[in-house]
Design a protein that fits this description.
Layout: E1 2-3, H1 8-22, E2 26-28, E3 31-33, E4 39-43, H2 51-67, E5 73-75, H3 78-99, E6 103-112, E7 118-129, E8 133-135, H4 141-147, H5 150-167, E9 172-176, H6 179-182, H7 187-198, E10 205-209, H8 211-216, H9 218-230, E11 234-240, H10 248-252, E12 257-260, H11 262-265, H12 275-290, E13 293-296, H13 302-311, E14 315-316, E15 325-326, E16 330-331, E17 334-335
Parallel strand pairs: 1-4, 4-5, 7-9, 9-10, 10-11, 11-12, 12-13, 13-14
Antiparallel strand pairs: 2-3, 6-7, 6-14, 6-15, 7-8, 16-17
Helix pairs in contact: 5-7
């Protein structure tokens, strides 16, 4: 919705009427539907030199309305403009970083809880920013996913992780794969070719996916997992318990291990709120029945490790055992 400057009340009133009209129930093919809409409002200002600029800001306000719950209108303001500018600058910076190959994996050890042995490492994405230093994905993952650039970033990091695998010959390496990436047509072929080019053994690779990747397109996901498994690549289900956690896919899909989300692990010592302990116990019992390994994420204290060990958790990962470190600082004992 575009409107003249200084007429905010009228614009918002018009938007409310339009939303009410658009929200009227309708009958389609014998079924009653209840549509809804999200609307962004931008008021004309002298600073606008082209109609596309006004439309761009109205579009940004519409996405804000969606983010705040949909079926509502939002007025574009200066705060929104500043955020839009920041995101545009970040995207441009991200594109330059891809050209400069400014991304690398940092490795965090994964420990066998019973023996204390390092059994593998997770390769965690870091952007080696020339001004801000190493940036974790939380600083840029949203822009990367919205722009589609994250797939290019992932492949840069995978290549370096596989090269490290050939030098560091103990245990496995796990990589994180987004649902969008996982479902791309050439993912498996490209992954296997990159492993071959690096001289890395597929049997030492684990891919970490979330439950969303399985539920988005279950038949396609099953074919992909079977292809990877036939080449010796195992699959870890990340952040287990935070999503839909549909039990049916645990026996339908070739899942090697469940990673128990750190939000549950962090609550294991809270005697006043035993919900985390009950959930972790249930997950471990289920995994044990199905013959699936388990990895407790975000282990920070000896007490948490002891509880996980007592409950039968197979492996642990977290600051207690080692922080993520760049490849040269990671030796066979884990993080330095």
């Amino acid at each position: 919705l575009l409107a003249d400057a200084g007429d905010e009340a009228t614009a918002q009133a018009v938007a409310s009427r339009m939303l009410a009209e658009l929200g009227r129930p309708m009958w389609v093919a014998g079924r009653e539907l209840f549509p809804s809409a999200s609307m962004g409002i931008a008021l004309w200002q002298p600073r606008y030199r082209q109609g596309e600029e006004l439309l761009r800001d109205a579009d940004a306000a519409m996405y804000r309305a969606k983010a705040l719950g949909r079926d509502r209108s939002e007025l574009f303001d200066e705060q929104m403009r500043a955020e839009a500018t920041r995101l545009l600058d970040l995207e441009a910076d991200l594109r330059r970083a891809i050209l400069a190959d400014a991304f690398e994996p940092w490795f965090q050890p994964i420990i066998h809880l019973a023996s204390g042995e390092v059994v593998g490492h997770e390769a965690l994405l870091r952007w080696m920013h020339d001004v801000q230093g190493p940036l974790a994905p939380g600083a840029f993952i949203g822009v990367g996913e919205d722009s589609g650039l994250i797939e290019q970033v992932d492949w840069l990091v995978y290549r370096r992780a596989f090269q490290w695998m050939t030098r560091h010959r103990e245990g496995y390496v796990s990589i994180n794969v987004s649902p969008r990436h996982f479902h791309s047509d050439n993912f498996a072929d490209r992954l296997l070719l990159m492993l071959e080019d690096a001289g890395a053994e597929p049997s030492r690779l684990r891919i970490e996916i979330t439950e969303v990747a399985l539920l988005d397109d279950a038949p396609r996901a099953l074919r992909m997992l079977k292809t990877l498994r036939s080449r010796g690549i195992f699959v870890l289900l990340d952040d287990f318990g935070t999503g839909f956690s549909a039990l049916s896919y645990l026996h339908r899909f070739p899942i090697h291990a469940l990673k128990i989300d750190q939000s549950f692990v962090s609550g294991l010592e809270d005697a006043e709120h035993p919900e985390s302990l009950a959930l972790v116990r249930a997950i471990l019992a289920l995994a044990g029945t199905l013959g699936i390994d388990t990895i407790g994420e975000g282990v920070e204290t000896e007490a948490q490790a002891a509880i996980l060990r007592q409950l039968g958790c197979t492996m642990g990962q977290g600051f207690l055992f080692g922080r993520p470190m760049p490849a040269p600082a990671t030796d066979s004992r884990g993080a330095a």
